[in-house]
Amino acid sequence: MRLNTTSFVNSVQAIQGARPLDSFAMTSLRTALQQADAGRTAIGHFNVSDLVTLYGIVEAARQEGVPVVVGASEAERRFIGVPQLVAIVRSLRETEGPPIFLNADHTHSLSGAVEAAKAGFDWVVCDFSSLAFEENVRRTKEAVLALKGLRGDILVEGEIGDIGSGSQIHESAPAGRRTLTTPDEARQFVEETGIDTLAPAVGNMHGVLRSMLKTDAKKRLDVPRIRAIKQRTAMFMTLHGASDTDDGDLRQAIAAGITVVHINTEVRLTWRRGIESSLTTQADEIAPYTLLAPVIQAVKRTVAARLALFNGREPQE
Q1: pTM of the full predicted structure?
Q2: Above pLDDT 70, what percent of the chain?
Q3: In which element (H, E) is residue 159 found?
Q4: CA 20 to 30 Å from 122, out of 100, 176, 228, 285?
Q5: What's the pLDDT tens digit per position in 108-137?
């Protein structure tokens, strides 16, 4: 589905005015993950903080004709509102296009996880990775039992290893050697917690370094480690902190067993640059929907390029 919008209003109308498509609507998140895993493709996960990023992401998924996961961290959920985000995504699901799933990203408390589950999120990332391994296991297992008790259909993700924090521009890499996930540790974690998806540390890192924005430097992944963890666990695996990762490494990581790829910092940078450009090129404009329309299109282009890569093809035009 091509959406050649020229204004914010047209973007909203294009998203909200389409005809329902039952074949897409029937797809569950678990089924979408199984299909991606079997085809050695990956589902793109993109975080949102406002309607501009949300509409850009949804338009990109519809252009590419692939499922997409909309994510919101605890801070993003506080800004948008948990029930508000659920309601908006639910309304978008009622229109034509591939499945849109909703994930409560990096949730650090049981209460936050329960809130998201009760509100209608499809997936919750229970992130206790900053704790010692045994405590991480205990807290994650507790969350799995609580969430599955509320809703049997909800998926729960656990995280082990160190991938840093903050989808932002960092002045320098984290001090000291980061702890990467081992295959044996991953298997133990999966077996003891009962999670549905696993987020390992395999060279990935949240945010980007300021130096990366000035050069061609990219993050690099430990692909053999990914392959070994997949073989030991046979789990759906999520790659967090994938912004500005080498494209070749991403392709190899997906072939090795990564099922979902998280992109946030790239979207935020596109949003920021788009707003700055719009304010510069339309200096006398004061209508938000006019100023923000090009930003939606910029986000759409960024997301579409990533979705195409995750599915082994060039972006649709």
Answers
A1: 0.88
A2: 83
A3: strand 155-160
A4: 228
A5: 999 999 999 999 999 999 999 989 999 999
Task: Give CATH for domain 8-310.
Answer: 3.20.20.70
Place of tokens 């010692």: 132
Question: What is the residue whose two structure tokens read 């699901």?
Answer: 93
Token representation of residue 27 = 């797809």
At 216, list the tokens: 């061609």
Contact between 68 and 307 (Cβ < 8 Å): yes
The whole-number pLDDT of residue 16 equals 45
Which three-class secondary structure state does DSSP give residue 43?
A: strand
* Residue type at 298 in one-letter notation: A
Tokens at 258, concatenated: 């990564």
Give the integer Cα–Cα distance in Å for 73 and 75: 5
Summarize pLDDT for 157-191 with one digit per residue, the tens.
999 987 766 555 545 565 545 689 999 999 999 99
- Please tell me the distance from the alpha carbon of residue 293 to that of residue 309, in angstroms, as a whole number: 25
**HSE-up of 251 (CA within 13 Å, CB side)?**
8
Packing angle of the helix pair 51-64, 288-310 (nearest 10 deg): 40
For the chain, the structural domain boundaries read 8-310
